[in-house]
From TrEMBL:
Keyword Membrane: yes
Domain of life: Bacteria
Alphabetized PROSITE patterns for the sequence: PAS
PANTHER family named in the record: STAGE II SPORULATION PROTEIN E (PTHR43156:SF2), STAGE II SPORULATION PROTEIN E-RELATED (PTHR43156)
Pfam families (UniProt xref): HisKA_7TM (PF16927), PAS (PF00989), SpoIIE (PF07228)
Domain PAS: 239-277
Lineage, uppermost ranks: Bacteria, Bacillati, Actinomycetota, Actinomycetes, Propionibacteriales
Name this protein carries in UniProt: SpoIIE family protein phosphatase
Length: 596
């Protein structure tokens, strides 16, 4: 082969080497792919091979030819291990790429380099025998060349087979591009095999570095442009295509440039007909990320149907930060809105029912009792939507005697309200002016126990009030209930009453009658445990605070006193109480007698 032809091939090899070096620099600069470093080494090895081979072809001196021929082996011995590591990373066998494997792969390249560097062993691999005058010397392989050739091809062929098998298993979306990768990987292997087996004119010139330029370019394109070694695009595409939410992509001018099947179904048109439409015709520009959107869309029967969507709008930017478009996602919440509306109506109905039941637990207004002021307060727990178990009543027993009852049924809800109503109206029916309170309450207990469908216990205070010229006499019994508080007009306060057994627990409850006389201006306060057990974190309102409020309000009316008591509870524990609260204040009219 003439010198001119060799010079031309040297130029081609140099160009290929420079191109591969540029690709290696690009891969090293990106550094955003898992197998990027092995690809960079692979390209750099091919680049060095091409440049060194170009110099070997371009010089006339046999010594320089031999030197650069030896130097090109630095690229040749590195290329096969780098290709093997790249394929392992590509097919997902990253765990195999260990330092032990890298050291094992480095044994043959290091041995080959040492053999070429030592003059005594150099010709075991390659040599330039003397050539006739005017002839270009041609390299000859030594005794170990075939072993080196066989090892390199074993690594290259094994890695390439693994590469071909793995690309054959890719999803159909990647098949066409995977074929391009496989062909690009096989070309340099085939060219090198033709050269080393002395087939035709391939025997004189090794075009492997030039062919490898094509392989390197295709690998870089596939890795960084088409991302063939990453299933992320395929996964994102599959998710987007199957999303129930409608997704629109618009350009900076607001025209729809892409949309998923859910979006085309929403619009009721084809994808082709939807592309190019103004996004504002579908999603108003004032719809925000947190906002909702209502659209009148045709139903299955063609009738317009109002549907509600959550709108998510995400601006897109290019690498320089300039606006590139917008992605809008419509997530339908029509059923959720309808469910919320139904729930709101249900809660409103529940509140009305609860309010009606609660109202039945207390008298609409307290009766007028001669010489006595009466006032009551009833506050349900929470927001008032759940029926509580507290109740109170004041009623005429005849013979200038009035009965009063205040109770608390365990639990909440309709069952508690049932027990409250049964207790209140049973006591009203059994109460009599000539019967002691404890006798009446025992009869109520027997009645509650006889109603087998009632499984809740009840605490209450039931008493009788008889006005007299010096105030009033109160006789009462406590069935597991908190003792009332008496506040004297002359000063001082005390809890009164003997605690008995709650109702609906035992056949023969322990009950005691207590008699208290209220002088002019004295006050009796009866309440449920929701008053003293109102909480602020771990602290309870307590009897002491109740007594303090009652003592400071001795000059006020019963209504004012009850209001001040409820206000104090709200100030202590907040607007919503953890338990129901019922209060009955009874205050005799008149001033205390002066003491001598």
């Amino acid at each position: 082969m003439g010198l001119g032809v060799l010079t031309s091939f040297a130029t081609v090899m140099a160009t290929a080497g420079i191109a591969l070096a540029c690709l290696a620099a690009y891969v090293a600069w990106r550094r955003d792919a898992r197998m990027g470093w092995s690809l960079a080494v692979l390209l750099l090895a091919g680049a060095w091979w091409g440049v060194a081979y170009a110099v070997e072809l371009g010089v006339d001196d046999v010594g320089l030819k031999s030197l650069w021929g030896d130097l090109k082996y630095l690229g040749i011995v590195t290329l096969a291990p780098a290709w093997f590591v790249f394929v392992l990373q590509y097919v997902g066998w990253q765990r195999w790429v260990t330092w032990r494997l890298l050291c094992a792969l480095a044994v043959v390249p290091i041995t080959t380099t040492l053999l070429l560097a030592i003059p005594a062993t150099h010709d075991l691999l390659r040599s330039y025998p003397p050539a006739a005058d005017g002839e270009v010397p041609e390299v000859e392989g030594g005794p170990l060349f075939n072993a080196f050739f066989g090892y390199n091809y074993l690594i290259l062929v094994g890695a390439t087979v693994l590469f071909v098998v793995s690309t054959g298993r890719l999803a159909r979306t990647y098949r066409r591009m995977a074929v391009v990768l496989v062909v690009a990987a096989l070309v340099p292997l085939a060219v090198n095999a033709l050269h080393n087996t002395n087939v035709g004119w391939f025997a004189s010139i090794d075009l492997t570095p030039f062919a490898f330029t094509l392989t390197g370019a295709v690998l870089v394109w596939g890795l960084f442009h088409e991302r063939l070694v990453d299933l992320g695009p395929l996964a994102r595409s599959a998710v987007l295509e199957r999303m129930a939410d409608a997704v629109f992509v618009a350009d900076p001018y607001g025209r729809i440039v892409d949309l998923n099947p859910a979006a085309t179904e929403l619009l009721g048109t084809s994808r082709t007909a939807s592309l190019g439409r103004w996004l504002a015709d579908v999603v108003p520009a004032d719809a925000t990320d947190e906002g909702t959107l209502e659209l009148d869309l045709p139903d299955l029967d063609g009738a317009p149907h109002r549907r509600t969507f959550d709108v998510s709008r995400q601006q897109l930017s290019d690498v320089t930060g300039r606006p590139a478009g917008v992605v809008v996602v419509l997530h339908e919440i029509t059923e959720r809105v309808h469910d919320r509306q139904r729930l709101e109506r249900l809660l409103e109905d529940q509140s009305r029912v609860a309010a009606a039941l609660q109202a039945s637990m207390v008298p609409p207004m307290l009766p007028d009792v001669r010489g006595i002021e009466l006032a009551s307060q009833y506050l349900p727990a929470g927001d008032g939507r759940e029926v509580g178990g507290d109740f109170l009543d004041v009623f005429d027993l005849g013979q200038d005697t009035w009965g009063f009852v205040l109770g608390d049924v365990s639990g909440k809800g309709a069952e508690a309200a049932t027990v409250s109503a049964a207790t209140r109206y049973t006591l009203r029916a059994l109460a009599a002016a000539d019967a002691m309170p404890s006798e009446t309450v025992r009869q109520v207990n027997a009645s509650l126990l006889g109603q087998t469908d009632l499984e809740r216990h009840c605490t209450l205070v039931y008493g009788q009030v008889r006005p007299d010229p010096e105030g009033a006499t109160v006789v009462f019994t406590l069935a597991g209930h908190h003792p009332p508080i008496v506040v004297r007009a002359t000063g001082g306060a005390e809890e009164v009453g003997a605690l008995g057994t709650a109702l609906a627990l035992f056949d023969d409850p322990e009950l005691h009658d207590t008699t208290v006389h209220l002088g002019p201006g004295d006050l009796l306060c009866v309440f449920t445990d929701g008053l003293v057990e109102a909480r602020r974190e771990r602290e309870m309102f307590g009897v002491e605070r109740v007594t303090a409020v009652l003592g400071c309000a001795s000059a006020r009316t019963a209504a004012e006193i009850s209001t001040r008591l409820v206000d104090a509870v709200h100030d202590f524990s907040g607007d919503q109480l953890a338990d129901d609260l019922a209060v009955l204040v009874m205050r005799t009219v008149g001033s205390p007698q002066a003491t001598s």
